[in-house]
Amino acid sequence: MAGVHHKRGHGGRPAASRTSGLDVQLPVAEMPARGVGGEEAYDLISSELLLDGSARLNLATFVTTSMPERAARLMADTADKNMIDKDEYPQTAEIERRCVNIIANLWHAPAGDDATGCSTTGSSEAVMLGAMALKWRWRARRRAAGLPTDRPNLVMGANVQVCWEKFCRYWDVEARLVPVEGDMLHLTAERAVRYCDENTIGVAAILGSTFDGSYEPVKAIADALDELEARTGLDVPIHVDAASGGFVAPFIQPDLEWDFRIPRVASINASGHKYGLVYPGVGWAVWRDRAALPEELIFDVSYLGGHMPTFSLNFSRPGSEVVAQYYMFTSLGFEGYRNLQQHSSAIAQHLAAGVADIGPYRLVSSGRELPVFAFALDPGVDRYTVFDVSDRLRERGWLVPAYSYPPEREDLSVLRIVVRAGMTFGMADQLLSDLRTKTEALSKLDRPLPETMSGGVRAFRH
Ligand SMILES: *Cc1c(COP(=O)(O)O)cnc(C)c1O
Predict the structure, then answer these.
(1) Hey, which of 268, 271, 278 would you mutate to test ligand 1's pocket, going by the most ligand atoms within 8 Å of its Cβ?
(2) What is the mean pLDDT of residues 182-186?
(3) Degrees to nearest 5, angle at CA 135 with 131 and 136
(4) In ligand 1, which atom is closest to the CA atom of 280?
């Protein structure tokens, strides 16, 4: 983490310059007294970045790794526009507004005037905004009833993405993490309700668990909360963290009710830079209606001599990601998105079936919800672990992460594959063939690998 645990060494990192043929020093801690010039700097830095993994072979990330060339050009063209300068760049602001409307319609927000929502730097910021609105609304309800407001809590599965725990810590809310247990690897309706009480600001339901791509049962959770309200009077809203699923379900599972069709869903976020098909970082937050977003959280910025409401944690950020999102909506249309997501889904299911065929593996999910699946080794395998399989695949360039589930199921370690646009059936078959070869080699070990014996739990978070 640069800046947090930062090595303060002096000097530079030696690098061979192709431009001058000489050895030059890349700065690592101090600003160089004299620069090497634009051409040389470009050459040196782009060479150094070759050490990163190949984005296309990165099956770990949910984030977009390939966009059409024209989109990339449009992004470069608009990188100099500051999203917050609505007054100077009214057309970029208008494009953001159109995107919010398009997304709100995709998620079945009640028809009305303009949708209530905004672009963000990603789902993390969008989650902070959605959860803040829940906290503010809960506090207003409690104050109005003359009840204490000092112990808010938020109910969510222990499989939540780290941004939810961040929200709770930063905004002083108790994180009520419902443990994963047995085969229940995400939040279920019955257990969500058990953790709710009068201090619950909301329930976070995830459309697309980062651990295995499974969808949490938003409708069943809402029904159970309806029943709780009928029984006790407690009215607990839901925020759906649809970071990935928000741009998948509307296209390939249109009948699944997870969005504003459910009255209890107050707000939804998604990452434009995941299945929204845009390079990082853009996210979206949308509220059911104005009533779901407390007025006190909204600030006015000046806009064409008038005012425009904004709600964000950041101030300045580039307009390019929002413009790129609009480009993708315009160029692909609903049908284009549906075709791409269906293709990813078909590849994910093909891969999952192929992995299940390889013998020592057991599927934890099948790629039928998000185009993402996780698989574990059979319990009988004791010479190597999923972490060794991950290392072996990396030798071939494939980045397939291995990680353990949260407490209560830390014993369950899996490999996870995220299929995104840009993956082909040909690549999938190559991956299956490499996995088969590596697994056969590992299966021939006559004793456990040393790191397997140490048995350490390795963490991985995405
Ligand atoms: C990726 C993800 C996030 C964080 O999203 P960013 O866009 O990377 O900030 C939050 N929740 C879920 C479920 C995710 O998959």
Answers:
(1) 271
(2) 89
(3) 115
(4) 7
